[in-house]
Design a protein that fits this description.
Blueprint lengths: L1 E3 L14 E7 L15 E3 L21 E2 L2 E2 H10 L3 E4 L23 E3 L5 E3 L5 H11 L2 E6 L6 H12 L4 H8 L10 E4 L12 H14 L9 E8 L3 H11 L5 E8 L15 H12 L1 H15 L6 E9 L18 H15 L5 E7 L9 E4 L2 E4 L1 H9 L6 E2 L2 E3 L3 E3 L5 E3 L2 E6 L5 E7 L6 E7 L8 E5 L19 E2 L3 E4 L2 E6 L3 E6 L1
Parallel strand pairs: 2-23, 3-6, 3-14, 6-9, 9-10, 10-11, 11-12, 12-13, 13-14
Antiparallel strand pairs: 1-19, 2-18, 4-5, 7-8, 15-16, 17-21, 19-20, 21-22, 22-28, 23-27, 24-25, 24-28, 26-27
The protein binds alpha-L-arabinofuranose.
Alpha-L-arabinofuranose (AHR) binds next to loops.
């Protein structure tokens, strides 16, 4: 592994056995952007055991539930503070017909979930179940509309059913148990319209988007925020065409970026991996910064005033499914590697909140880089869950700029990554939070935080570390990866020096 010495502070630093990193924290900087809480968004698709088993067990289940939602999951998610939840897909969204998911359950038709293993979907979780879930979690709903196989009329009527106070659809909604309209802000006009969402060209999608955007209306004070179906990772032309043709008709454009080895062949095991793979996947995950920058540059050219937001509405790790599980269900375990990727990705997202206003990790439970895994009545909080919980202090806090002289290194794949990653913010109560990720797999790092003025007095901290980089939390076992109090710091005037363990994430409160 070759290391490059960074020159960020204008000085070169020699690397000793225990790396020494200096971080300047500019807590006095004014007029900094807010880290939109929606950066901590979640995604729930009708895919594998995400909705059924994961979220919804039904009111008759032996598994303790609140009106059909797993009680253990709801409690864990309430602690997490989920700001926004995207549903019903993903690829599923472009084959979903919302009318199939309302009314008495016994009358709801069944469909084949063609994208995800051919599983039969009974539509028992539909619009009411989703909006009631969002109320329970106190989060914003984010609907992905069917553009690929649906019609303009169908999506327009879904918006009316959900948000209008009067009319036949409002009466139908009341008959189905909900008199008051819900509020709906985020409306995705299609998903991956270049692929599973219709296999379209960007020019064709742009024309189609215009029709959807006109007929999806604002009812009774509800104001829609329309999201155009955006690019996959390096497809800059998609963003360019959309900004050119419909930049004045959308509130935001989406982007999808997965940490994956590739789309053909094996994606590697989520748990059985070597040190090279640890670095390769982390380096792939942090490449998202370059991708965000490139999409932002295109957006800046068309929209210098920054009216259109960028929403990374799918991101996360994608590995081979756990042995013995349905390949179409995307069920994977979650290790300290996923936690590191989550922390380093969130640190990056914080730096781009001028355009990046939302990010939804894929997915909330039992699918891809999940917060939670379930098996029957058992539940496991994954290492990624713990990062999201430790980091939720940054939601809606003011970004605090930092500079670090951390070296960069070249992963075996040739991708470059930093040897340490830091972010900071100040919350509404004035508390300063600094989060640090040390991706070195076997090396603790001494990291000194130098403040502009602050002479830290009361410091509390948590650390997420694990016996090995492959450690994960499993059913029926004591959690191998769980946060612990962090006390390995020394104060010295306006500085604090920390010993950050190898392969760990530390969050401090000042
Ligand atoms: O998150 C799984 C799938 O990944 C989604 O359905 C799709 O949008 C993306 O390709």
């Amino acid at each position: 592994m070759k290391r490059l010495v960074s020159l960020i502070l204008g000085t070169s630093f020699c690397l000793a056995a225990m790396a020494q990193v200096q971080v300047n924290v500019h807590e006095t900087a004014e007029n900094q952007p807010v880290i939109h809480k929606e950066i901590y968004g979640q995604f729930a698709e009708h895919l594998g055991r995400c909705i059924y088993d994961g979220i919804w067990v039904g009111p008759e289940s032996d598994i303790p539930n609140i009106n059909g939602y797993r009680k253990d999951l709801i409690e864990a998610l309430q602690t997490l503070k989920v700001p926004v939840l995207r549903w019903p897909g993903g690829c599923f969204a472009d084959e979903y017909h919302w009318m199939d998911g309302i009314g008495p359950k016994e009358n709801r038709p069944m469909m084949i979930n063609n994208n995800w293993g051919g599983t039969v979907e009974d539509n028992s979780f539909g619009t009411h179940e989703f909006f009631n879930l969002c109320e329970l979690l106190e989060c914003e709903p984010y609907l992905s509309g069917n553009v690929g196989s649906g019609t303009v009329e169908e999506l327009a009527k879904w918006v009316e059913y959900i948000t209008a106070e009067g009319g036949t659809l409002a009466e139908l909604r009341a008959k189905n148990g909900r008199k008051e309209p819900w509020r709906l802000k985020y409306l995705g006009v299609g998903n991956e319209s270049w692929g599973c969402g219709g296999d379209m060209y960007p020019e064709y999608y742009s024309d189609l988007y215009r029709r959807y955007a006109i007929y999806c209306r604002n009812y009774d004070g509800n104001v829609l925020y329309k999201v155009a179906s955006g690019a996959s990772d390096y497809d800059y032309n998609w963003t360019k065409v959309l900004m050119d043709k419909i930049g004045d008709k959308m509130n935001g454009v989406s982007l999808h970026y997965y940490t994956v080895t590739g789309w053909t062949g094996s994606k590697g095991s989520a748990t059985q991996f070597d040190v090279d793979s640890w670095y390769d996947m982390i380096a792939k995950s942090v490449e998202v910064e370059e991708v965000i920058k490139n999409h932002k540059a295109i957006m800046n050219a068309y929209d210098p005033e920054g009216k259109v937001d960028l929403l990374l509405d799918e991101w996360g790790t994608w590995f081979d499914v756990e042995p013995g599980t349905n390949p179409g269900h995307l069920y994977q375990q979650n290790t300290m590697r996923d936690a590191m990727i989550a922390a380093m990705s969130l640190n990056i997202f914080h730096r781009h909140t001028d355009r990046l206003t939302m990010a939804n990790i894929a997915q909330i439970v039992n699918v891809l880089q999940a917060m939670i895994l379930t098996k029957g009545s058992e539940i496991v909080l994954t290492p990624t869950y713990h990062v999201f919980r430790m980091y939720n202090v940054h939601q809606d806090a003011a970004f605090v700029p930092t500079e670090s002289n951390a070296a960069t290194m070249v992963a075996p794949s040739g991708r470059i990554m930093p040897e340490a990653s830091v972010t900071a913010s100040r919350d509404a109560a004035g508390k300063l939070h600094v989060s640090i990720a040390n991706p070195l797999h076997n090396e603790a790092q001494t990291i000194t935080l130098n403040f502009d003025e602050l002479k830290p007095k009361n410091i509390t901290g948590e650390v997420l570390a694990a016996p090995t980089i492959q450690s994960y939390n499993d059913f029926g076992k004591e959690p191998a990866v769980a946060p612990k109090p962090f006390t390995a710091f020394k104060k010295n005037g306006k500085s604090v020096t920390l010993t950050v363990p190898a392969a760990s994430v530390v969050c401090l409160e000042f």
